[in-house]
Amino acid sequence: MYGGGNTFEGIKTDSLAQEDPQKLAAFEARIARGEKIEPTDWMPQLYRKQLIRMIEQHAHSEIIGALPEGTWITRAPGFKRKMALMAKVQDEVGHAQLLYSAAETLGKSREEMINDLISGRSKYSNVFNYPTFTWADCCFISWLVDAGAIVNQLANAKGSYGPYCRALDRICAEESFHLKYGHHCVIYLASGTPHQREMFQEALNRWWTPMMHFFGPSDKISAHTEILMRWKVKMGTNDEMRNQFLDMYVPKIWELGFTIPDPALKKDPATGKWAYTEPDWEEFKRVINGDGPCNKERLAVRRVAEERGRWVREALKSPKMNYVTPLA
Amino acid sequence: MNEQALKEFLYKMADDTLIIGHRNSEWTGMGPILEEDIAFSSMAQDQIGQSLALFTLLHQLGEQEPDTVAFMRNANQFHNCILTELPNQEYDFSIVRHFLYTTSATLRWDMCTHSSYEPLAQLAKKVKGELRYHSLHARTWIQQLGSATEESISRLQRSLELAMPYALGIFEESPFEKELVAQHIFEGEKRLMEKWLSAIEEVLGKTQLVIPDLKLIQPVLGGRKGQHSEHLQPLLDEMSEVFRTEPGAEW
């Protein structure tokens, strides 16, 4: 999973002033031809900075995203769900591992990135700052947040930076199983007892606004990203991604007989565009700046995990450590 | 074949692996490094899967469905050893407990490959392959942390002393010990403990860690008879929190 609507560095008009114009032109021509940029290739500073920021946010979203669902591993109802949820959350942590490695190819170490996460300097997907009150909230994430992530990730996998694209190809393959698992869980709630149906309807009511926020601010108010699109760092606008998600999943939610808490939600058959009530973007800003229902709790858990594991990481660096040859 | 003896033995193994798997799964998202989150989660998945396989054997012997047995019993009906139910605490305790438990489980499953109860012998052949990696993981960490820094060595030593009385409880004998041995279902806890001791001595001998004097340790028993620490019932309450809300519902 992963949050879309990344926040990017503010782009100043003179951001490219110090770059060699010939190299820059050659770089842009490569991207226009659909070539991938590799770690040792020349790239403008701004490209490197934006990519580190984006991949790092994605990696953080994976480990923070493991927390709201992870708390349900110990409570998952029955063997089948327990085993599947464990495997799913483990995949997410594995994605973080892949993504930190991809970001490291650009020159920032995993340790620096994690330090920036726990000090609050770098962001992660806003959606994980909301609580999972019931099993149905956990199912909502597995199905629909992962579905939103796939929309973003499939687009980004066609981007220009080689290591990120390759990581995303692997991630998308696993995410497609998460989506099936999540959908399966929701089908069981939908066709279960009245209480089970009600659980999911309540989760849907709680999660709809964060889900709409997931793709980032409306194009009307979001920062200028033309250069990022040209460089294939950003592969679609926030509204395009949101529309694609609505187009794929609203019919599936309706099919299960649930009510989406937005009376204005409707597809215009002529344009293929969905009309909806704009979610509260002030709330989005508030939450992304640290004032959401779970921001403090999520970072506190991460901070404690880092703190408690410090002695282990230090021991691994000790020259006295007994090297154990791995058995192949 | 004495079915009661067999069932008792299968319940003990199934409960051990369910409870330790549950504890190991609690490390997901909390490990000292990402790779450890992933490793503990992998082992937890194997362990929960092993318990499901054992409960399935029990179901074939006339016991209730695996979900019912795992999610609806109370603590006094569980036969896991107390070592498995203790909270994870710090990573040092978890890794030491994992090492002590996994070494015994690897040997136990290996002995089960010769069981006269054919379905168990078949299952053991499959599980053995999984346990090889659990064991490798545990030994690697014990050897590395047990000889690295002053802090890592002293933390592991403390945890070893804390865990050892509980680890001896793994080998608490069942009332059917004689039948199990006589009918070649299992070679017995005594034999398992001998093998376990020499296996842990071999690994700990390569580290700065000192095995506590076993003669001075009072083993913590009772788990195999359903007498547990105060930690098991809350674990089970959490595990069955959703399952018990709607009896009969499918999830």
Give me the secondary-structure topology.
The complex is a heterodimer of chains A (328) and B (251).
Chain A: H1 21-32, H2 45-70, H3 79-104, H4 110-118, H5 135-156, H6 162-190, H7 194-213, H8 226-230, H9 238-255, E1 266-267, E2 274-275, H10 281-291, H11 295-316
Antiparallel strand pairs in A: 1-2
Helix pairs in contact in A: 2-3, 3-6, 5-6, 5-7, 5-9, 6-7
Chain B: H1 3-25, H2 34-60, H3 66-72, H4 82-85, H5 91-112, H6 118-145, H7 150-168, H8 177-182, H9 189-204, H10 232-239
Helix pairs in contact in B: 1-2, 2-3, 2-6, 5-6, 5-7, 5-9
Task: Tell me what the structure shows.
The complex is a heterodimer of chains A (328) and B (251). Chain A is mainly alpha-helical. Chain A has a single domain, classed as Up-down Bundle (Ferritin). Chain A is built from eleven helices and two strands; from the N terminus they run αααααααααββαα. Chain A has a two-stranded antiparallel ribbon. In chain A, a hairpin with a 6-residue loop joins β1 and β2 (274-275). In chain A, α2 runs antiparallel to α3 (79-104). Chain A is globular. The model of chain A has no long low-confidence stretch (mean pLDDT 93). Chain B has 251 residues and is mainly alpha-helical. Chain B has one domain: Ferritin, core subunit, four-helix bundle (Ferritin, Up-down Bundle). In chain B, 64% of the residues lie in helices and 0% in strands. Chain B has helices at 3-25, 34-60, 66-72, 82-85, 91-112, 118-145, 150-168, 177-182, 189-204, 232-239. The longest helix of chain B has 28 residues, at 118-145. Chain B starts with a helix and ends in a 12-residue tail after the last helix. Chains A and B meet through α2, α3, α6 and α11 of A and α2, α3, α6, α7 and α10 of B.
